[in-house]
Amino acid sequence: MSPAALRALGSTAAKAIISPGFKVSVQRGQFVESALAPFVFATFHPSALLRLRAEEEKEAAFKQLVNDLKLVRKALARP
Fold this sequence. Notes:
By secondary structure, the chain is an alpha+beta fold. It has helices at about 10-15, 25, 50, 55-75; strands spanning about 5-10, 30, 40-45.
């Protein structure tokens, strides 16, 4: 049985699952075609938040991460 969705968290995972040339900084939040699952998606790894110094950057990155994950949930909720 195949998974309904794959979410790659971080560049290493995205390059392994999607393609070696995948760039999370450019393609984050976009669904990509794959034979692995109907929905394949990459975003940055949550640990990246820990490396951000400015509180504003942390808040913005957290919101991006949450919004990215909501896109997957919305895609899975479609009939």
